[in-house]
Design brief:
Layout (H helix, E strand, L loop, with lengths): L8 E6 L9 H9 L2 E7 L1 H4 L6 H19 L6 E4 L2 H12 L2 E6 L5 H17 L3 E4 L14 H9 L44 H13 L5 H4 L3 H7 L4 H6 L4 H16 L10 H24 L23 H12 L5 H13 L4 H14 L5 H10 L5 H12 L12 H8 L4 H6 L34 H32 L6 H11 L6 H7 L6
Parallel strand pairs: 1-2, 1-4, 2-3, 4-5
Helix pairs in contact: 4-5, 11-12, 12-17, 15-17, 20-21
The structure holds a DNA duplex.
Amino acid sequence: MLPTLPSMLQVLWFKRDLRWTDHAPLVRAAQAGPLLPMWIDEPAAWAQRDAATQHRAFAHEGLGELDAWFRSRGGALWRVRGEATTVLARLHALYGSFALWSHEETGNGWSFDRDRAVARWCTGQGVVWRELPCNGVVRRLRDRDRWSQLWTQRMEPLPLPAPGHLTPLAPHELPEAHHDDAVPIHSLDADKPLRQRGGRGQAVALLDSFLAWRGHRYRTEMSSPLTAAEACSRLSAHLAWGTLSVRECVHAVWQRRSEWLAMPADQRPAGAMASLRSFESRLHWHCHFIQKLESEPAIEFRNVNRGFDGLRNEGALTADEQRRLDAWCTGRTGFPFVDACMRGLHATGWINFRMRAMLMSFASYQLWLHWREPALFLARQFLDYEPGIHYPQAQMQSGVTGINTIRLYNPVKQSRDQDPEGVFIRRWVPELRGVTGSAVHEPWLLGSTHLRPADYPDPVVDLRSASQQARVLIHARKADIATRQEARAVYDRHGSRHPGREHTARRSARRAGAVSDPAQISLLGDEEEE
DNA sequence: AGTGCAGTTGACTTT
DNA sequence: TAAAGTCAACTGCAC
């Protein structure tokens, strides 16, 4: 380890943490010496299958405000296009050795590899790279039992204020950025005009309005897409890009709670306290899920529970699977509520949690598709795509974790429950605007009468038989795994005690998802209520 | 007034 | 963050 000299250049690498408050690397780097704040626009990152134009556009709005903040302090954010180690090598050639600062990032497989390449480069050049925690996620976590405690410990300290003093390089002292602009960004998709805007200002305004009034009925209004768009915090994309930190949210919630507790109970808006509690628990889960991917990056690519391997086709899609996937992706499954949710998502980049679960469940069960392709499609549609939440959720909603109960949604029941009048359906599925009454939930019931819109597709699958078939198959596999697990447990109790062999048996049992200890079930389980 | 009965509700189990 | 089935208790009502 090299000592950090007071005069050494401090390179601050902004990743998905586009803010200047509660930013430990910024504070530490600013204390240590002259600062070069940097954003690397990496073409390879945007070429990944989970990346979308809307993500980059949202990030750039945040970067604009970040740049303005540095400019108000005499500096500027250095934005450069290129490959990370190439960019760092250029800085090294220009400035000599430097210190590198960033937050820890729980990203996708690509960013994980990129970070390892950067770490290797740093080691080779004698550059010290300090990565600091950015939320409740614990790197190299050994003992999951204590995680909840660690989360609280991370959240308790007050959010860090922006550094009072910093000496950023002046804009004219920054390296030319245009050299690497030769590397183009290829994108096939379009930005979404109706998506949320990025930037710290937006994030703070959303947090304020959510706690001031929008979120009072969060608890009861989060389930329906009609009410959720306003009653939910809408902070997820900002948390994903770090224009707001989880800790800032948690402290704002605690602050709000203490204000309400100081008030007579009958003066508090109905449901507001329950909503606040519910929201706080979600901030907890936010990190809880990201922790899963941090601890097991392979969750992005394969079943957490290998016992479910081969249940659905993992190879090239058959023609019929492709037809079902296309219908789902384009919002033309013939199930009005599914299609309305998908089309609304296309347009806005957001849909409430329950409807996300329904969309994923529909693809996985009724359409019997492996989760990987649908998950990648949704990753591009969700403005708030966060790998650490996305893949564990996709797997849970597909029933391949083995530790969660199967949640097989009935899209017609959801439609009747969450959109009884068909308002949301008619908003996003114009073909059905002329359909009156409850037929809007099941237009196929209109038969071939003139009341049935000709331009709306027939259902891609028969709901009853597809659901039934999925239910049988998933439970058969669960039972099969349980049987093999039981056999494994018997073997562990009564089988050979030959040293080494038992160890192997336990390891493979764990790989198959064997969970025989009830304490472990509650530890790993995610029966997240409320 | 008590009885029989169809329909409803809620707790619980199964898939 | 499920849905469907089972069963017993309950309800309203006719007689």
